[in-house]
Write a structure and sequence with these properties.
Rossmann fold, alpha/beta, 192 residues
């Protein structure tokens, strides 16, 4: 089966360090691998409102169907989010919040369709100690586990000023093989 990557840029800064690192990793994919890049800052969604138990139908939000279809069309979903306050950005979190809606409507088969796909993360942070990214990694790993997905891990880089991540030799080296690794089925830590 051929792979299809959906890269979801989730930064408040266009062409930022996280996007540069994600593109460096994507350059290593085989030439026939489909890649789709969407910028969540440009495809804004309103704050998620949980209407699962409301009498009125859930309103469709602008850009929501585009993102849902793109998500379902991908074998590999890459959340490219800088580390903001030790977790994913508000753009990434809002996108993942909409998964709660997609579990129920318009097609309750969303979770089953996501099973077996792979969730990846790419992040750049100003902090040098990678341990501070554990909440971000946990968010993505737990999301993958809940959905029955594989988790490819998170490619971490360091940088603050524009372009600075390209001087992070360790991150640039990791990017060369990041998507080539075999992604295991995600598990919650207490299941291991």
């Amino acid at each position: 089966m051929s792979r299809s990557f959906l890269f979801l840029l989730a930064s408040a800064r266009s062409d930022g360090n996280t996007e540069l690192l994600a593109r460096a990793a994507a350059e290593q994919l085989p030439g026939d691998t489909e890649q789709r890049w969407l910028d969540l800052a440009q495809l804004a969604l309103p704050d998620y409102v949980d209407a699962r138990h409301a009498d009125a139908p859930w309103p469709e939000q602008e850009n929501e169907e585009l993102l849902r279809r793109a998500t379902l069309a991908a074998t590999d979903i890459v959340i490219a989010s800088p580390l903001y306050w030790y977790s994913v950005s508000s753009y990434a979190k809002r996108y993942l919040d909409y998964w709660s809606k997609w579990l129920a409507t318009p097609d309750p088969g969303f979770r089953a369709e996501m099973t077996g796909r792979t969730l990846w993360g790419v992040t750049v942070m100003a902090h040098r100690e990678e341990v501070v990214a554990e909440p971000l990694v946990g968010t993505l790993q737990h999301t993958a586990a809940y959905m029955g997905m594989r988790f490819g891990g998170v490619l971490l880089g360091n940088g603050s000023r524009p372009g600075q991540v390209l001087a992070d030799e360790r991150a640039v080296t990791r990017a060369k093989t990041f998507f080539a690794q075999e992604a295991p089925l995600a598990r919650f830590p207490y299941e291991e």
